[in-house]
Backbone:
């Protein structure tokens, strides 16, 4: 088992950093470029959700990304201790957004689901959200 943990402030600039860091971590196992691209896209969506929805753009918030590689499988958890989600099932519906006035598409979870092999979301209002994703590193 191999692990990586990164904690960053909820700054927009850290979205691209985390996307690249998780992509580089997975790349050490020599997956295809398509698999790395899928992982980076899903991580980008999860981190953006934490910044925009979890912390409402408050840079004092902390995002923790935990990664693990075991038996050819990458597990990524993106954690925030922000606002949380009252109804996870509703939030995971296509096109659901609480930020329609900001031109948000409401497809973040849909994108994560389509690019990863497994997606689980755990959240409590006022406690934060954990997005857990898994991806096989070999086709």
Residues:
């Amino acid at each position: 088992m191999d692990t990586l943990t990164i904690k960053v402030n909820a700054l927009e600039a850290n979205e691209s950093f985390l996307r690249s860091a998780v992509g580089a971590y997975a790349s050490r196992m020599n997956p295809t470029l398509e698999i790395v691209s899928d992982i980076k896209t899903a991580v980008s969506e999860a981190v953006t959700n934490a910044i925009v929805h979890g912390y409402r753009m408050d840079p004092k918030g902390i995002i923790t990304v935990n990664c693990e590689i075991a038996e050819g499988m990458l597990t990524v958890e993106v954690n925030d201790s922000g606002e949380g989600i009252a109804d996870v099932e509703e939030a995971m519906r296509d096109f659901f957004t609480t930020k329609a006035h900001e031109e948000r598409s409401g497809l973040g979870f849909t994108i994560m689901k389509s690019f990863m092999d497994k997606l689980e979301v755990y959240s409590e209002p006022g406690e934060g959200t954990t997005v857990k994703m898994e991806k096989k590193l070999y086709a």
About this structure: The mean pLDDT is 89.
